[in-house]
Amino acid sequence: MLSWRVVRRMFCAEAKAAPVSSSRWERLRNSKAAVWCRSLLSDYKEACRDIVVGAREKPIKASVYASILGGAWACFHTKPDQASFEAALLDCSNQLCLLSLWIRNATSDGHVQNLLKLRNEGRLRHISLGFLSLVYRTDYDSAVMLYEAQCFNLSVPWKELPLRTLDVGFVGRWWILDSKMKNYDVNVDEFKHLPLHMQATSPPGVEEVERNEGLHKESRLVLLMESEEDMEKQTHVIDREQENVSQDVSVKELKQEETEA
Asked: What one-character-per-residue DSSP string does 168-203 give?
């Protein structure tokens, strides 16, 4: 009890010795936290001022840095996620289902069917690396309770990730899936019996395009000339028929006159 009284008197003496004019706001401003915040703000202010001055002195360098930062920000916000991969995979599967088995590209169909099989087995995994996304395969489903599937020491090492990667997502696209779906409606196996120079075609050049257009125009002119000749022949035939009819009528009139006479 005596010690409590001593402590109470000590605190009361300190409170009386403190100046009455100091307010709570002044004590907060002079505290260590307030001093640290003011120094931090001043440092940020000086840094921003140096950035503005440097951008004015070297605009090309500043524009390059700004474009790099803007590109990094765009890549980060446009990287696809796992839901977009599944949507793209199902879309590609629907496009292949609309085609006959004899028309589908074997590469496109095999790649899509492999991804669908791994998806149904729950072995597809998605990982985000900041600016891009990866889809890779694992040996087991995450819900499998086997020891090999749950043991951390037996999990897939990171060095095997490039071998297990199935697709790369960057700037809103899945690049491997898009490349595999190129010419998905062309069955290359149908052209194996053709000669080598006929199996692959290249886009025509400017001279070939002009020559084909000229041949097309000439073919139209020939057709028009043939149609005009046909019209002239038809008019000649009609004139001859009319002449024959008029001669027959005149012969009949002569015969009638002879009979009447």
From this structure: EEETTEEHHHHHHTTTTT--GGGGTTS-HHHHS---
Reading the chain (261 residues) residue by residue, the pLDDT tens digits are 445 555 555 555 544 444 444 577 777 777 777 788 888 888 888 888 888 887 788 888 878 888 888 888 888 888 898 899 999 999 999 999 998 888 888 899 999 999 999 999 888 988 988 889 999 998 888 888 888 888 888 777 888 888 889 999 998 899 999 999 988 888 888 877 777 777 777 777 888 888 888 888 877 765 545 555 666 666 766 777 777 767 666 766 777 776 766
What is the distance, to the nearest Å, from the Cα of residue 213 to the centroid of all Cα atoms in its chain?
Answer: 35
pTM over 0.70: no
Helix (H) or strand (E) holding 159: none
Cβ(141)–Cβ(161) under 8 Å? no
List, as one string, the DSSP characters of 114-128. Answer: HHHHHHHHT-EEEEE
Closest CA to 111 of 96, 126, 129, 128: 96
